[in-house]
Structures are given as C-alpha cells and as structure tokens.
Amino acid sequence: MSTSLILIILLIVGAGAYGLAASRAVRMSGGKLSALHSRPGYYGAYAAIWAILPAALVLAVWLVASPMIVERTVRGGFPDDVKSMPVAEQNLAYGMINAIARGLPMLSAEDTAALSSGSVDVRAKLAEKGVPLAGDVQPYMLEAARTLNAETGTSRLAMTAVVALLALGGAAIALRSVAPRFRARNRVERVILWALVAASSIAILTTVGIVLSMLTEAAHFFREIPPLEFFFGTVWDPRFAGAGSTSAGQFGLIPLLAGTLYIGFVAMLVAVPVGLFAAIYMAEYASPKVRSLAKPLLEVLAGIPTIVYGFFALITVGPFLRDLSMQVNGLLTGNYVNFIQAQSVLTAGIVMGIMLIPYVSSLSDDIITAVPKALRDGSLGLGATRSETIKKVVLPAALPGIVGALLMTASRAIGETMIVVLAAGVAARMQINPFEPMTTVTVKIVAQLTGDLEFTSPQTLVAFALGITLFAITLCLNIYALYIVRKYREQYE
Known about the structure:
Layout: H1 3-29, H2 40-76, H3 80-83, H4 87-103, H5 109-117, H6 122-128, H7 139-177, H8 184-224, H9 227-232, E1 236-237, E2 250-251, H10 254-285, H11 288-299, H12 306-333, H13 345-369, H14 373-381, H15 386-414, H16 418-423, H17 441-448, H18 458-492
Antiparallel strand pairs: 1-2
C-alpha cells in the first residue's frame, strides 16, 4: 500500500474518531453542554490526535529506517568479490540493482521466466520497458533485485498493518477516556504547545545544522589554504593544478567581497530613496483609491523572477547605458567611445535596485501606517504642517521598523546571483570605477559548484568558505541593526 493511501486512511480514522468522541461527549452531557469540562470539539480533537499522531510518527520513522535496513540486507547478500570492491563501485552496483528492481514489476510472467533461465538479456528487456541501465547486468544483480523487491514488499505490508493497528488502538483508547469531567481541552492544548515547540526547534536545529555543515567543509578548506591568504588575498584565481604542478591557485576573498558590497551599495542607493518616498506618499498623501491601485502594481515587481531582471539588464539597461555614454562622450570630446560597459557595476546596481524597490516600499508603508493616528493628530493640532509631522513625528516613530526593512533589503541584495551574472559579469576585479564589470561572492559559489564535482579539492571546498563568510556578514548586519533599533527606540520612548 502506498504511503499516500496510508495517510488518507489515517485521516479517515482520525475524522471518524473525532465524530465519535464529540457525539459521545454530547450524549454524556445529557443535552447540557455546561456539564462538560471542555467543549465537544476538544473531545473530538483529543480522539483524532490519538488516532493520527502515534501512527504518523511510527510511519515517519518506518519510512526512514526501512530503506536502510533493506539496503543492508541486500548488500549483505553480495558476493565476496563485490564486497571487496571500493565503496563507490558498490554504490554504483546497488544503484543498478535499484533500477532493475523498479523494472521487474513491469515485466510479464513469461519475461520473468525467461530472465530466470538466462535466455533473455536483462538490460535489453528492461530498456524496452523504459528502464535504461548504465552498465552490464551481473548474475547476482537480478537475484539481489528480487530480494530488494521482496524485502520492500514485506516491510511495506508490516508497516501498513502496524500503522493501522496503532490508529485504531489510539482511537479506541481516546474514546474510552471520554467523560464529562475529562480535561480534554488541557490535553489538546498541551499537544499543540509541544507541536509549536517542535516546530521552533526544527527551525533552530536546521539553522544550526546548516552552519555546522558549512563550518565543517570550510575547515577542510582552511587546512589546505591559510585563512590569511583567503581573507586578505587580493587575487581570485582558483585554477585546477595542472599535470606535474602542485599549485591550487589563489583564493583571495577581497575582490569578491568588494564586488558584493559595491553592487549592493549601488542597488541600495537606487532602492532606498525611491522605495521610502513611495511608502511615504502611499501612507500619508495618497487617496484610498490611488493607494489601492498603486500598492499592488508596485508589489508586482517583487513577483518577477530574478532571471527576468537579468535579461532586462542584459538586453535593455546595459546597452542603453553603453550607448548613452558613447553619445555623451561624443558631445563632450568629439570621440564617440563609450566609457560605460554594458556589463558593469552600475548596470547591475540599477536593475537590482529596481528589483528591491517593492521590498523597501511595501515594508516601510506597513510600518508607517502602523504609527498611531493620535501622534499625527497631536502634531497637526499643535500647528505643525503635514511634512513637518512626517519628518518630526511619523518617521522617528517608525524608524526601528524602517531600519529592519532596510536590513532585509540589504540581505536580499547581498544574496542576489542571477542579475549579477548577466549584468555585472563574472570577472573578479578590484576597482572603484562603477562603469566596469565586477562580480560577487554568490556568483563564485555557483561557479565553483557547477558540474559533477566532489568536495575534495580547494576549488570546490572554497564555496563553503565563501558561504560561511556571507553568513557572518549577514549576522553582523543583524546585530548592528538590532543595536540601532534599540538605541533609537529608547530615545523616542
């Protein structure tokens, strides 16, 4: 039985337990619900939780553990010469066995008998059924595939029976617990509390796991490349060592970090004034009709894929700036030579800034709108103009939230990749001319992990060092923003 069908059965059992428990509670109350400790819905929810939750937990554990146990059983049946092979070759063999196991149910009884007798080529027969194999099928693989299917079928049958019994047993236990003074509400709320704690823990543990995984791989990188050379190096040239050469290239972070901050700075110069002024207009000056039309139209920009922005920069903004610079240079000097390249920091910054405008405007608009109306009325009542009220009262009150919005925007700018690839190029350079191309940390992370590579060389492990560097930058931005928010909040209060 498929997992989705098992889940449907669990939901049906849970719904049935809910209805039975709720109706039983109503019957026990004798039509007087005030005699019950909890509402009938809580009794139903308690029964549904007992019917679904234990069975679902067992199902999840079984789905994780069963494939590992089955794989160990199948690998244990490998011939001795196969067990002595390297792990990579054993994994390749097990992958072929998996493919054969998926294809065997597609064959007819005659085909299966022919395969057993050896009169038919397994690879050709499975290819006819749309199951291509990467190599030749060894005799032990067919038997291992049958074992795999048999063990998997047995495990799934046992899983279905255990889950069904747990669901029915849990529902029965919960129904027996239904009584007028039974504290069903307390039990249900306790389960919900633990569910919330589990959800929070999963989020925290996921973050910790991501950081630890990056730190572990970055530590492997720093065993081969000195940290000082990485963090203070000014040349990025992670070439692969040639034949007879031990050089792993140069991994200077400074050019990538400079490009990341430079392009992000130009983007923020575009996004912050436009987005903030748009938010002030929509929150303080625009009529409800204009606001209801302008705000959704502005937020449409946030839904455009970044690759589309990259195309826009590549075929529209970049060529426009290049041709404009040529015309300006011709008018000023008579020499029609462009001084702005199509791929440049300015191109990427402008297009990225356009993409970030809705982040600034939408968040800032919500924050400004949340400022109490009494503050505005008090300022206007004392004789201040609308602009003075916005500058002296509304913006200081909304400043902590606006700082948070700008922080989110800056983090979004630092992590952008596709716009930079198409609009700023991939050249790791150190220069201050915004009319020349540069690149960012995220672009090089993608470049170093492109292709079928193993994480065994500095050229691939450097991606984790770059990733943990980005994480540290974002963390520092968060800490500094928290400091700013607390400082201005104290001054305002």
